[in-house]
Specification:
Blueprint (H helix, E strand, L loop, with lengths): L14 E4 L9 E5 L4 E6 L4 E7 L3 E2 L1 H4 L8 E2 L5 E2 L6 E3 L14 E8 L5 E7 L2 E11 L6 E10 L4 E11 L2 E5 L2 E4 L3 E4 L7 E5 L2 E10 L5 E9 L3
Antiparallel strand pairs: 1-2, 2-3, 3-4, 4-7, 5-6, 8-13, 9-10, 10-11, 11-12, 12-19, 13-18, 14-15, 15-16, 16-19, 17-18
């Protein structure tokens, strides 16, 4: 027998599903947005783990197996990012494994008027708000994800770094704009010190973070799917 796939779709508001996703453990949080862009956040390692376009997800793998399966994104080519926290100490980064970084703590999330989550987590005494919205380009009508990270601390810090994205091959293609594996454009027009760093067999887009005590630091990243 062939079981028809289930479809969990976002219409007027965002839809969330907290379960396991491919490459993410039990603390995955999937979000489907009305503009048909989607993400999966890893609340164990405090990272954006996967993004994709189109329909949101098939929850049958977890709904039909008492929660032991995985959610299947309804996309043939989701963009997956590697393990490890997106915000980490540049001088002594965590040696990545399957667990939780010892200096990081997930603090939950709040929802906006369209039920889009704002994730909050902490590294040391730095609080990070991680908020993504679905945006449609008025000229091309193409939807994309706009991610806003707001970092706050009562103390000044210049030792943290942000991993904006990673892949097998990352190329700088303009001022604050990068091409990831020929599939995804990563735009940070207000960030002028982002760079491409080789790590193992892949490459990462890294942004050094300088936080002044009491003042929020805001970094905006746009993930735009390249047309093929």
């Amino acid at each position: 027998l062939i079981r028809e796939p289930m479809e969990l779709l976002a219409t007027e508001e965002a839809v969330m599903l907290r379960r396991s996703y491919r490459g993410i453990g039990k603390r995955g949080i999937g979000v489907g947005y009305p503009a048909k862009v989607n993400l999966a956040f890893d609340a164990e390692q405090m990272r954006l783990a996967m993004i994709w376009t189109g329909k949101f997800a098939d929850p049958g793998g977890v709904w039909n197996s008492q929660g032991h399966g995985t959610v299947r994104p309804l996309s043939r080519n989701p963009v997956q990012f590697t393990n490890g926290p997106d915000v980490d100490d540049a001088d002594s980064p965590w040696i990545v494994d399957e667990g939780r970084p010892p200096r990081h703590r997930f603090k939950g999330y709040s929802l906006d008027e369209k039920r889009r989550p704002k994730f909050e987590y902490q590294i040391g005494d730095v609080i990070v708000e991680d908020y993504s919205t679905d945006v449609t380009d008025p000229a091309s009508k193409q939807p994309f994800l706009r991610r806003t990270l707001t970092l706050r601390s009562s103390h000044s810090s210049s030792t943290l770094t942000l991993r904006a994205a990673d892949g097998k091959k990352v190329s700088a293609i303009g001022d604050g704009e990068f091409l990831l594996d020929g599939l995804l454009r990563v735009r940070m027009p207000d960030v002028h010190d982002a760079s491409v760093v080789s790590v193992g067999e892949g490459q990462q887009i890294r942004v050094p973070l300088s936080i002044r005590g009491g003042d929020p630091l805001v970094v905006v990243i746009e993930y735009v799917w390249a047309r093929r």
